[in-house]
Amino acid sequence: MTHNKKALVATLAAAIAATFMGAIPAAHAADAYPSKPITVLVPFGPGSGVDTTARIVSEALGRELGQTLVIENRAGAQGAIAAQGAARAAPDGYTVFFTTQTTQAANPALMKKPGYDPIKDFAPVGRVAYTPALLVSNPALPVKTLDDLIALAKQQPGKLTYASGSAGTLVPAAMLTSAAKIEMLHVPYKSIPLGLNDVIAGHVAMMFTEVVTGTQQVKAGKVRALGISSLKPWPSLPDVPPIANRFPGFELLAWYGVYVPANTPAPIVDRLSAALKTVMNDAAVRERLVGLGLEVSYSTAPELATFGKSELEKWTKVIKAAGIEPE
């Protein structure tokens, strides 16, 4: 063997060895994962729909993974604060982002500088559920139907107030004002429960809220349901008319999904995805989520990756069509 051939063989052997040795730590880390508690970042406050859902799913995931999952709420800036934190976290599987379409599909069109990229900065784990937005008003407001609300808003242009606590509650309101050709005053909140509390107290006239947070208040008589953003009546609120009955095609569904920081080792992502699939197929977990008013809709990591890109395009178009300017 010539000197050059010997040198080439040595170089190739060294490269193969380096590749093999480099793979060992990642493989070992995946085998040992998880060896300590996992932080679950939630972009909205306690009591919000995504928070309640995250707690149910995280509890079951903890049992499946044999490790504790700790919820950390980081509300503010339409979820961007939590998204930035998740994007910048170590890609080791010990920070999980349990989020909604607000951070992953809407914020790039709602914010000039969200501070993260919903596609490049995250690795999908799986989708969990869907939910429509529920239009509710303070019972003292002299309206009982959506038509009543529209008529009142036209009598008092720019005077009626509406709250929002996320893109999933802001965007349908903008869609409604555009479709009905009415003017109302927007009052933003850090999270949906805070806005809903002020609707109940009469400080704000109405809002689109989540089914998870709004259903109990409707049944308790603390707010009045005027419409829902699904095309058909929602199973948990069959008597609430779809807004699409008045404005054909009016539909906007929020969704919940699980992500980890980009560059998290594939074996760890696979471990989380497999655990999430098991949890989402668990009858007891599904029953609890359906009981909240959610439509359970599990998807795999690759499916969520494709879905996330299509949702980003969809929400960008919807937001622009509703006339919402990025801030």
From TrEMBL:
The keyword Heme does not apply. It holds the Pfam family TctC. Residues 1-29 form the signal peptide. The keyword Signal applies. CDD domains: PBP2_Bug_TTT. This is Tripartite-type tricarboxylate transporter receptor subunit TctC. It comes from Pigmentiphaga litoralis. Keywords: Receptor, Signal. InterPro entries: BUG (IPR005064), Bug_dom1 (IPR042100). Belongs to the UPF0065 (bug) family. Gene3D superfamilies: Bordetella uptake gene, domain 1, Periplasmic binding protein-like II.
